[in-house]
């Protein structure tokens, strides 16, 4: 069934897919009929333990009953009004309560829209043009930040895409992650509107910040008058309710959110200091608008998800699952390798002993990782098909799921050593 759908899809979509990483599953992508808890159910009637989880949003697992119930209730009341709704106020209240940098919020429809808006906002606020980003950090598929990007961009050899004018890319400086020397040099010589980064890299595999890196950037941006933007599309509400900024105790000027705050429905958000956020229309002159901004379904899905997260079980279970599985993987691999884990998401790299930059991640043996991915699929375990993506765990990854996963990994890894 999946093979038939794949064959037909190539008639309709460029490369047969609507997002490039989906084409990385060989010999062809499996098509999903549904999901429940920690499992995907394919059109071929297979049940797969899922460590992709929609690339991060599904921290409660698939089709969590309380999220389903709340969304059904909203569907019966309607799903698009073109006017404000109560749910957007309630979701914003949660974000402002939990995210240290959030004084005001603007909802958009994706992480890409969130970073686009944050960059425009920083430029409007500072009156400057130049942006500084970090090699391997992925901030969505738009011109200003698709330069030396991570994830599927690197996987498919288009870390800097065709179609981006030189006039745009020339306004973007790129530094190595976990290195403060380059940012200080750039900021001291250029009028930089914003420094944007993933506080934990999640789009070159998982790469945590080294001690002093985030706080050092905070001090540098204050010194030189640049807006510090944390892209917490992945880490927001995954590293606890306060995200990476709460975890590492470094508060940026602006934060971009997505994924979890929509409960798996399309969403993005920019939040931050009141004096910056008030530059957005209609109170200011930095334009942003959208028919689907603060869509009621996404608002309700996100609100139901955060209410579940506030109970604490999802964090306890998902962290335990990631810890147990990553430690078993670490013990089972005999060749040089490294396992990077932050709380409830992780990735393993083969043929290297340290990964603290995108350059080091690219030096890993990606062909071996792909081999493991393919063998795990035969064991009914789904991990990301790209070395530069991330394994996520959820509330649904209980001890039974983890035990089954560990046994599958042991069978696969015995031939890799």
Write the layout of secondary structure elements.
Elements: H1 2-12, E1 32-36, E2 39-42, E3 47-50, H2 65-77, H3 86-98, E4 104-108, H4 111-126, E5 130-134, H5 151-155, H6 166-169, E6 172-175, H7 181-189, E7 192-197, H8 213-224, E8 227-231, H9 243-248, E9 254-258, E10 268-272, H10 274-277, H11 296-309, H12 313-332, E11 337-342, E12 345-350, H13 358-362, H14 366-378, E13 381-382, E14 391-392, H15 399-413
Parallel strand pairs: 3-13, 5-6, 5-7, 7-8, 8-9
Antiparallel strand pairs: 1-2, 2-3, 4-10, 9-10, 11-12, 12-14
Helix pairs in contact: 2-11, 3-11, 7-8, 12-15
Order of helices and strands: HEEEHHEHEHHEHEHEHEEHHHEEHHEEH
Kindly report the spatial arrangement of strands forming the biggest sheet.
Answer: 4-10-9-8-7-5-6
Share of β-strand residues: 15-25%
What would you report as the Rg, rounded to the nearest angstrom?
21 Å
- Averaging pLDDT over every residue, what do you get? 95
Structural class: alpha/beta
Separation, N- and C-terminal Cα atoms: 34 Å
- Please state the overall shape, judged from the principal axes of the Cα atoms: globular
Total count of helical runs of at least 4 residues: 15
CATH architecture group name of the domain at 83-309: 3-Layer(aba) Sandwich
Query: Biggest sheet: strands, sense, closure?
Result: 7 strands, mixed
Return residue spans where pLDDT drops below 50 for at least 5 consecutive residues.
none
CATH class (first level) name of the domain at 83-309: Alpha Beta
According to DSSP, the number of beta strands is 14
Helicity range: 25-40%
CATH fold-type name of the domain at 83-309: Aspartate Aminotransferase, domain 2
CATH-level-4 superfamily name of the domain at 83-309: Type I PLP-dependent aspartate aminotransferase-like (Major domain)
């Amino acid at each position: 069934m999946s093979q038939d759908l794949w064959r037909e899809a190539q008639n309709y979509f460029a490369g047969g897919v609507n997002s490039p990483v989906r084409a990385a599953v060989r010999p062809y992508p499996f098509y999903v009929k549904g999901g429940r808890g920690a499992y995907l159910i394919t059109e071929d009637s297979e049940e797969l333990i899922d460590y992709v989880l929609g690339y991060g949003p599904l921290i409660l697992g698939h089709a969590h009953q309380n999220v389903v119930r709340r969304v059904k209730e909203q569907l019966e009341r309607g799903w698009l009004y073109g006017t404000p709704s109560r749910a957007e106020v309630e979701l914003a209240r949660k974000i402002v309560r939990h995210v240290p940098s959030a004084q005001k919020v603007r909802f958009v429809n994706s992480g890409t829209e969130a970073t686009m808006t944050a960059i425009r906002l920083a430029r409007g606020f500072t009156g400057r043009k130049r942006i500084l980003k970090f090699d391997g950090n992925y901030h969505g598929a738009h011109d200003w930040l698709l330069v030396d990007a991570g994830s599927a961009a690197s996987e498919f050899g288009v870390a800097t895409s065709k179609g981006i004018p030189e006039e745009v890319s020339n306004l973007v400086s790129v530094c190595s992650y976990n290195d403060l020397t380059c940012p200080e040099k750039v900021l001291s010589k250029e009028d930089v509107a914003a420094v944007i980064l993933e506080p934990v890299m999640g789009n070159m595999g998982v790469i945590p910040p080294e001690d002093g890196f985030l706080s050092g950037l905070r001090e540098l941006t204050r010194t030189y008058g640049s807006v510090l933007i944390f892209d917490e599309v992945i880490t927001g509400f995954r590293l606890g309710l306060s995200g990476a900024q709460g975890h590492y105790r470094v508060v940026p000027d602006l934060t971009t959110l997505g994924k979890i705050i929509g409960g798996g429905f399309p969403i993005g958000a920019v939040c931050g200091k009141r004096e910056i956020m008030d530059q957005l229309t209609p109170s200011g002159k930095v334009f942003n608008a959208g028919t689907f901004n603060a869509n009621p379904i996404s608002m309700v899905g996100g609100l139901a998800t955060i209410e579940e997260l506030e109970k604490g079980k999802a964090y306890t279970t998902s962290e335990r699952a990631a810890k147990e599985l990553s430690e078993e993987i670490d013990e089972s691999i005999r060749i040089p390798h490294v396992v990077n884990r932050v709380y409830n998401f992780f990735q393993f790299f083969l043929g290297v002993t340290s990964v603290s930059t995108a350059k080091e991640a690219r030096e890993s043996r990606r062909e071996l990782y792909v081999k493991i991915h393919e063998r795990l699929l035969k064991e009914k375990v789904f991990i990301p098909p790209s070395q530069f993506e991330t394994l996520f765990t959820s509330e649904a990854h209980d001890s039974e799921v983890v035990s089954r996963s560990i046994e599958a990994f042991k069978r696969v890894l015995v031939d890799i050593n």
